[in-house]
């Protein structure tokens, strides 16, 4: 996911995206812990996506002030 795609969404859409990514992060951690998924690179990519969404949310909140 790219930051330019995220910047076109409103804050409510970004909050929903963050919630979905959080659930996916939990599920992926459980898969890795139970050794059902050996691709740990997905975890790194997912964490970066979460940080990217949080950054765009913060940018929008600061710009609204």
Notes on the structure:
The chain has helices at 3-7, 11-33, 41-64. The protein is elongated and about 45 Å long. The chain has three helices and no strands. It has one domain (3-64): Helix Hairpins (Orthogonal Bundle). With 65 residues, it is an all-alpha fold.
Structure keywords:
single chain, 65 residues, mainly alpha, Helix Hairpins, 80% helix, ribosomal protein, Ribosomal_uL29_sf, ribonucleoprotein
What are the SSEs and their pairings?
Blueprint: H1 3-7, H2 11-33, H3 41-64
Helix pairs in contact: 2-3
GO biological process, one term: translation
Pfam families: Ribosomal_L29
Family: Belongs to the universal ribosomal protein uL29 family.
Entry summary:
With about 60 residues, the chain is mainly alpha-helical. It contains 3 helices and no strands. Belongs to the universal ribosomal protein uL29 family.
Q: So how many helices?
A: 3
Helix content: over 70%
Strand content: under 5%
Name of the top-level CATH class? Mainly Alpha
Give the uncertain stretches in residue-range form: none
Protein structure class: mainly alpha
The CATH topology assignment is Helix Hairpins
Number of strands: 0
What Rg do the Cα atoms give? 14 Å
How many structural domains in the coordinates?
1
Inertia-based shape: elongated
Largest sheet descriptor:
none
Mean pLDDT value: 94
Please state the second-level CATH architecture: Orthogonal Bundle
Order of helices and strands: HHH
In whole angstroms, the N-to-C terminal distance is 27 Å
């Amino acid at each position: 996911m790219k930051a330019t795609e995220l910047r076109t969404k409103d804050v409510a859409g970004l909050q929903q995206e963050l919630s979905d990514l959080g659930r996916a992060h939990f599920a992926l951690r459980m898969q890795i812990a139970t050794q059902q998924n050996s691709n740990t690179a997905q975890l790194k990519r997912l964490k970066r996506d979460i940080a990217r969404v949080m950054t765009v949310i913060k940018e929008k909140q600061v710009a609204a002030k």
